[in-house]
């Protein structure tokens, strides 16, 4: 091997480490009690998951405030490695995240990406359009609404290939 190739060989692992470091760490710590079932799976057999801990993500459908609590309806999506919703993966059911007190709807705008950590608190029947639907209920311990910048974070704008390309942001 020629000595001139050595810097190139060393640059490759350093570059790969740098790209891996771009992904943010998960925001919530999963415990042994945290389940990996989807909201759709929980809705099918809720008794199997009674009082389990979950970390679910998705897109806010809407917020409702009541006299003593608030509810966020969420269309669930799988989590990425940073616990952000992976919208390209397809929805995995709906759930209702509940919180004591008042939640400002402007802080949870319709369509916003959200991650919720909490404890399952049963299910409740409702409607999605005209269809009957069984919603798992999650009592929120913590929640995070992701900004557009946070959703882009960890997705380096690096592409490998041959040819000419034009990108517009």
Short description:
This protein is of the alpha+beta class and 169 residues long.
Care to describe what's here?
With 169 residues, this protein is of the alpha+beta class. The chain has a domain at 39-152: Nucleic acid-binding proteins (OB fold (Dihydrolipoamide Acetyltransferase, E2P)), CATH 2.40.50. The chain has 3 helices and 5 strands. It has helices at residues 6-20, 39-44, 148-152, and strands at 53-65, 69-77, 94-100, 113-128, 131-145. A 5-stranded mixed barrel has the order 1-2-3-5-4. The model is unreliable at 8-12, 14-21 and 156-161 (pLDDT under 50).
Q: Tags for this entry?
A:
169 residues, 5-stranded mixed β-barrel, globular, 3 helices, alpha+beta, single chain, OB fold (Dihydrolipoamide Acetyltransferase, E2P)
**Beta-strand proportion:** 35-45%
CATH level-3 fold name of the domain at 39-152: OB fold (Dihydrolipoamide Acetyltransferase, E2P)
Percent of residues in helices: 10-25%
Can you name the CATH architecture of the domain at 39-152? Beta Barrel
Strands side by side in the biggest sheet = 1-2-3-5-4
Spans of at least 5 consecutive residues whose pLDDT stays below 50 are: 8-12, 14-21, 156-161
**Main β-sheet, in a few words?**
5 strands, mixed, barrel
Q: Care to count the β-strands?
A: 5
Relevant CATH superfamily of the domain at 39-152:
Nucleic acid-binding proteins
- Helix-strand string: HHEEEEEH
Counting helices, strands and paired strands, the structural category is alpha+beta
Give the helix/strand layout:
Elements: H1 6-20, H2 39-44, E1 53-65, E2 69-77, E3 94-100, E4 113-128, E5 131-145, H3 148-152
Parallel strand pairs: 3-5
Antiparallel strand pairs: 1-2, 1-4, 2-3, 4-5
């Amino acid at each position: 091997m020629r000595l001139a190739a050595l810097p190139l060989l060393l640059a490759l692992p350093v570059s790969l480490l740098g790209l891996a470091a771009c992904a943010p760490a998960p925001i919530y710590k999963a415990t042994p009690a945290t389940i990996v079932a989807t909201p759709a799976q929980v809705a099918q057999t809720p008794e199997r998951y009674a009082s389990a801990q979950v970390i679910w993500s998705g897109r806010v459908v809407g917020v409702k405030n009541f006299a003593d609590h608030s509810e966020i309806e969420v269309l669930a999506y799988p989590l990425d490695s940073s616990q952000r919703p992976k919208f390209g993966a397809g929805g995995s059911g709906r759930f209702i995240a509940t919180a004591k007190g008042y939640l400002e709807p402007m802080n949870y705008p319709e369509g916003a990406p959200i991650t919720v950590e909490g404890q399952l608190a049963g299910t409740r029947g409702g409607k999605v359009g005209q269809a009957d639907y069984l919603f798992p209920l999650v009592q929120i311990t913590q929640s995070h609404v992701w900004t557009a910048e946070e959703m882009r974070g960890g997705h380096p704008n690096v592409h490998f290939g041959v040819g000419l390309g034009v990108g517009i942001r």
